[in-house]
């Protein structure tokens, strides 16, 4: 094997970690100038040497072929400062993305997404049960069309987006045509999905009977056997209904695994075709994509068809016209989660294993004919998955017209007009025979959710070079408007289960029609100066006006300043070949957070009072409500060694959010409004209440250790690490505590506030908690134990590592991610670890077997089960709080590329075959944790679909 460190030639392209670079060698020295292009605000480009802010970049190489539906699911561990995780494994669902922590209490905490210079819709746009949280409009953009993803994190990088930039900006650049003969690419991969991590198991029938036997004997100080209880031994001790249930359970011949009833093989495939080319006047890129991903649970999938056309025409020496058109249609089938009886994940813990799933003839067992329910009033998930559905069909059309005119040699005007149209049709159907639809005689909910957004930009760019002095400036005018219209109708009672359209449901059950319009416009100016790319200065100012605020408060002013100095460009350092970059940079500024609050006092005329439109209070007036503002400070250093074969970056950030917006509870005297049932419904006022700080460090290193041609050994590595400390520093009105969380000065905005579990008393099986919530003296009285802060949702240390190896056409790429310091709370543990309170009706987790207290097992982790519960042992505490520390092999790809003589005469330029695994291996440091560790972004589990791991085989063909 020929292994050598090769000298990179003039104009060569090479990959360093995850970024693509163009290299030029200066004639007068051995210094290599690296020209990495980074996309920043409004479609503008800068080289890495010109940047004074904090940015992280992913290129097409790190994105291609990854078997996920949307680009937001690729961010975890690949760039510094970003945490991303999915609370659910719903195919096509969205990922929670946090850039440098959480910048708001209950405002918008997700970054904005910019595609080819313009803002696009993101997140979930659904409204139906299930689709409201699990759809993802970004999944309508094919990752195969993405050229690069850049995360903008500090003031200099993001301030040009002003009012919406406080939670970060993610810039997506799609692929474009290049000059040259037509190039065609066809890629296909197909494979299967499995559950990424092992979750809690349900009981077998034998285990369930044993557990209930011990529970009854503990409760009544008896020693009955399963057969004796089945014969009615507890008749004098239980109510008639409870005794009948106990007898039926103990005598049942059935042993049903309810997860197996709902489970299936998860299949997925992706096909992508693209064509590109052009000449000096005209370039084009055209692509079509078909993607399908199925969960391991029946009736849950995501399908997408998308088409992209991107054209660029140099009409004259001064005029250039570019168009970008994306159109897609997706279909999502999702399932109920959380405590819905129709949730198939819940059924494995809440359905009794002693109930059958099917009748002797193979048909589905629907339970008691009088109410069509199982023995504990649950539903049969097998029948529901075959006969019910929650689905959303999403159509998205996105267009981008870009006209560029060169007024003078160094002065260019750009006009951008970009409309985006999204239409989501949602349908919920419940059959009339079994499940939620039984009491309605059938249920159908149909809705149309239409968004029309458009973005208009006028940009004047100036650049001039005076010797070694480089000057640049931009004047920007932008307007953005979102117009949403929503229509919904619901009907019940249908004549036959085969009729599923709304007109066949004969009883109107409700309707809704709303329209919401919000808009903003802004003006910005940016300036850049550098001296030989050694001394760099950046500044920007933007003024935004938002329609939602009161007159006088509608406008916000946002700005940034940044500076950098590259020691490597000093003459005496240039002579040191070992050092190719040593840039120090710093930035500070003021940004805004996205706002969804409404400060107006309104009346809603949506109540029928004797067939007259009745008014009611809809909101509480607050004339003083103002922007949430963010002041990010950033200081960093970028080092390059051996002509940037090794690069290191390190930075510190401190991001302070002021005027935090919060829903402040009001009493009746202050304006709270009571419902008829006595609950407080409109007792809230939106107000600015405090200050929040996110701070931490970020480190990254990338190295090309061996670099040669295709037949030589190549090896590159990269790693990144980020830290986060999130803290509320001011809070008007004092702490806000709930049963599981707290909001208070000195703690993070996503902090758990719980009693601390001290284990089980070995002498009698009682539950124990620490009295002071920390350590020391314990008690078996839940009410005597104090709540205390027990950790945060968010990881405090997180990042990733990657390595790429290749030799003679073979290539292996590995991507690892990790996170430490975060916590996850099991939201349903009070039922699934109930220690007897709910066990007769809802079995819970079968993992408790062998690990609950008995006289023979006094060191067990779970208390003695007692009918009705054991001293509130299943109430909220750290017993159900888990460490989310993990290491994950998030992606692995091994392939071989055929080129040269092998393909001669075939018409092919290259042919690659590969196998790939996504989320193939996950190590959880907390052995008790039976959930996906990246759930900690949300903080809670909700019995949602399991996160998937995928194994695919693929082929890429270029001709």
Automatic annotation (TrEMBL):
Keyword DNA-binding on entry: no
Signal peptide: 1-22
SUPFAM superfamilies in alphabetical order: Porins
Any one GO cellular component localisation term in the record: cell outer membrane
Gene3D superfamilies: TonB-dependent receptor, beta-barrel domain, TonB-dependent receptor, plug domain
Domain TonB-dependent receptor-like beta-barrel, chain residue ranges per copy: 347-827
Keywords: Cell outer membrane, Membrane, Receptor, Signal, TonB box, Transmembrane, Transmembrane beta strand, Transport
Domain (TonB-dependent receptor plug) ranges: 48-169
Membrane topology: Multi-pass membrane protein
Compartments (UniProt record): Cell outer membrane
Pfam families with a match to the protein in the record: Plug (PF07715), TonB_dep_Rec_b-barrel (PF00593)
Keyword Transferase: no
Family annotation (PROSITE patterns): TONB_DEPENDENT_REC_3
GO biological process, one term: siderophore transmembrane transport
Domain of life per record: Bacteria
Annotated GO MF terms: siderophore uptake transmembrane transporter activity
Family affiliation: Belongs to the TonB-dependent receptor family.
Protein known as: SusC/RagA family TonB-linked outer membrane protein
Organism the protein comes from: Chryseobacterium flavum
């Amino acid at each position: 094997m020929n292994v050598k460190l090769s000298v990179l030639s003039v104009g060569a392209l090479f990959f360093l970690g995850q970024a693509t670079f163009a290299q030029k060698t200066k004639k007068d020295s051995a210094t290599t100038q690296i020209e990495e292009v980074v996309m920043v605000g409004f479609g503008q480009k800068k080289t890495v040497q010109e940047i004074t802010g904090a940015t992280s970049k992913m290129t097409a190489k790190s994105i291609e072929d990854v078997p996920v539906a949307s680009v937001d699911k690729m961010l975890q561990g690949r760039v510094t400062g970003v945490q991303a995780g999915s609370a659910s494994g719903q195919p096509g669902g969205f990922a929670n993305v946090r850039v440098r922590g959480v910048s708001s209490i209950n405002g918008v905490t997700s970054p904005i997404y910019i595609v080819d210079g313009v803002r696009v819709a993101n997140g979930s746009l659904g409204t139906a049960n299930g689709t409201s949280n699990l759809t993802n409009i970004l999944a309508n953009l094919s990752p195969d069309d993405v050229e690069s993803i850049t995360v903008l994190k500090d003031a200099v990088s993001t301030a040009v987006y002003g009012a919406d930039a406080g939670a970060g900006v993610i810039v997506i650049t799609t692929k474009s045509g290049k000059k040259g003969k037509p190039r065609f690419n066809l890629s296909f991969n197909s494979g299967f999905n499995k559950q990424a991590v092992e979750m809690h198991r349900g009981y077998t029938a034998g285990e369930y009977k044993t557990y209930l036997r011990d529970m009854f004997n503990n409760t009544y100080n008896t020693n009955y056997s399963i057969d004796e209880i089945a014969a009615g031994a507890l008749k004098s001790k239980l109510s008639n209904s409870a005794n009948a249930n106990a007898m039926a359970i103990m005598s049942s011949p059935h042993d049903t695994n309810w997860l197996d009833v709902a489970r299936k093989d998860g299949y997925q495939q992706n096909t992508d075709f693209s064509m590109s080319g052009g000449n000096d006047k005209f370039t084009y890129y055209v692509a079509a994509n078909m993607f399908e991903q199925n969960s391991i649970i029946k009736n849950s999938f995501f399908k997408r068809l998308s088409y992209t056309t991107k054209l660029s025409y140099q009409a004259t020496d001064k005029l250039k016209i570019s168009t970008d058109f994306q159109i897609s249609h997706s279909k999502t089938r999702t399932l109920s989660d959380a405590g819905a009886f129709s949730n198939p994940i819940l059924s494995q813990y809440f359905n009794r294993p002693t109930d059958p799933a099917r009748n002797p003839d193979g048909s589905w067992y629907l339970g008691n004919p009088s109410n069509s329910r199982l023995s504990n009033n649950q539903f049969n998930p097998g029948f529901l998955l075959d006969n019910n559905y929650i689905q959303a069909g999403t159509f998205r059309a996105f267009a981008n017209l870009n006209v560029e005119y060169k007024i003078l040699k160094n002065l260019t005007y750009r006009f951008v007009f970009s409309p985006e149209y999204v239409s989501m049709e949602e349908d919920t159907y419940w059959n009339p025979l079994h499940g939620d639809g039984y009491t309605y005689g059938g249920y159908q909910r149909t809705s149309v959710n239409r968004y029309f957004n458009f973005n208009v930009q006028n940009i004047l760019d100036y650049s001039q070079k005076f010797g070694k002095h480089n000057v640049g400036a931009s004047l920007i005018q932008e307007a953005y408007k979102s117009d949403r219209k929503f229509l919904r109708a619901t009907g019940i009672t249908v004549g036959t289960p085969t009729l599923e359209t709304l007109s066949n449901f004969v009883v109107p059950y409700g309707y809704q029609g709303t329209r919401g319009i919000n808009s903003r416009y802004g003006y910005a100016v940016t300036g850049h100066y550098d001296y030989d790319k050694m001394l760099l200065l950046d500044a920007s100012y933007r003024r935004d006006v938002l329609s939602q605020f009161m007159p006088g408060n509608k406008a916000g002013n946002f700005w940034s300043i940044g500076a950098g100095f590259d020691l490597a460009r000093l003459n005496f350092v240039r002579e040191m070949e070992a050092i190719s970059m040593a840039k120090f940079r710093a930035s500070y500024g003021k940004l805004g957070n996205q706002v969804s609050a409404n400060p107006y006092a309104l009346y809603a005329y949506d109540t029928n009072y004797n067939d007259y439109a009745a008014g009611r209070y809809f909101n509480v007036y607050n004339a003083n409500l103002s922007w949430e503002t963010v002041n990010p400070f950033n200081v960093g250093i970028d080092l390059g060694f051996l002509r940037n074969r090794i690069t290191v970056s390190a930075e510190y950030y401190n991001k302070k959010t002021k005027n935090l917006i919060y829903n402040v509870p009001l009493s009746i005297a202050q304006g709270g409004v009571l419902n008829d049932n006595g609950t407080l419904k409109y007792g809230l006022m939106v107000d600015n209440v405090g200050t929040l700080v996110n701070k931490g460090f970020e480190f990254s290193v990338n190295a090309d250790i061996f670099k040669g041609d295709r037949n030589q050994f190549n090896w590159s590595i990269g790693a990144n690490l980020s830290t986060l400390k999130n803290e509320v520093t001011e809070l008007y009105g004092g702490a806000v505590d709930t049963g599981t969380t707290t909001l208070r000065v000195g703690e993070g905005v996503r902090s758990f506030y719980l009693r601390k579990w001290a284990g089980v008393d070995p002498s009698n099986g009682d539950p124990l908690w620490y009295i002071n919530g920390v350590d020391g003296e314990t008690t078996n009285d839940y009410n005597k134990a104090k709540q205390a802060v027990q950790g945060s949702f968010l990881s405090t240390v997180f990042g990733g590592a990657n390595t790429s190896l290749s030799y003679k056409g073979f290539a292996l790429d590995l991507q690892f991610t990790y996170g430490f310091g975060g916590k996850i709370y099991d939201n349903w543990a009070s039922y699934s670890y109930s220690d007897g309170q709910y066990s007769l009706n809802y079995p819970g987790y079968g993992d408790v077997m062998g690990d609950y207290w008995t006289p023979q097992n006094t060191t067990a982790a779970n208390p003695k089960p007692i009918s009705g519960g054991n001293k509130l042992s299943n109430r909220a505490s750290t017993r159900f709080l888990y460490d989310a520390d993990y290491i994950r092999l998030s992606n692995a790809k091994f392939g071989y590329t055929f080129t040269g003589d092998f393909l001669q005469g075939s018409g092919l330029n290259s042919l690659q075959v590969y196998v790939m695994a996504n989320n193939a291996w996950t190590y959880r440091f907390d052995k008790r944790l039976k959930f996906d560790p990246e759930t900690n972004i949300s903080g809670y589990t909700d019995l949602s679909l399991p996160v998937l791991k995928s194994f695919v085989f693929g082929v890429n063909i270029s001709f």
